[in-house]
Amino acid sequence: MKSEVLILYSREGCCLCQTLEKKLSNICLKNLKPSMVLSIVDIDSKKVPLDIQMKYTNQVPVIVLDSTRLLKKIEFPRVSPRLKEDMLLSWIQKKLNILYKLS
Question: What CATH number is given to the structural domain containing 41?
């Protein structure tokens, strides 16, 4: 089964973005159910569509699930920067459990 994609929209030089990026990079997203891969996207990149830039430019860091199983993208609630890596993994799994149970 293909992994789902967890997108982190972030910005270079943003300390909140860098902290969340480091935490997400250090946890094993493949252990989640369903398995996830991380994609880090600089919101200021010219490759990012204008509608996405306009939507998230003042909100980064933003985590979005790009789900092939659910056939849509789902924005996660803002995550506390105080969460440790193990709690972040648990928080993501809880969100996934809710999303995939409802589908």
Answer: 3.40.30.10
Total residues found in the chain within this entry: 103
What range defines the domain where residue 43 resides? Answer: 4-102
Q: Mention every residue, 6+ apart, whose C-beta is less than 8 A from residue 102.
A: none
Nearest to 63 by CA among 2, 50, 83, 47: 83
> How many folded domains does the chain comprise?
1
Q: What is the pLDDT of residues 85-98, one digit of tens each?
A: 999 999 999 999 99
The 10s digit of each residue's pLDDT in 55-70 is 999 999 999 999 998 8
Report phi then psi at 74, rounded to 5.
-130, 120
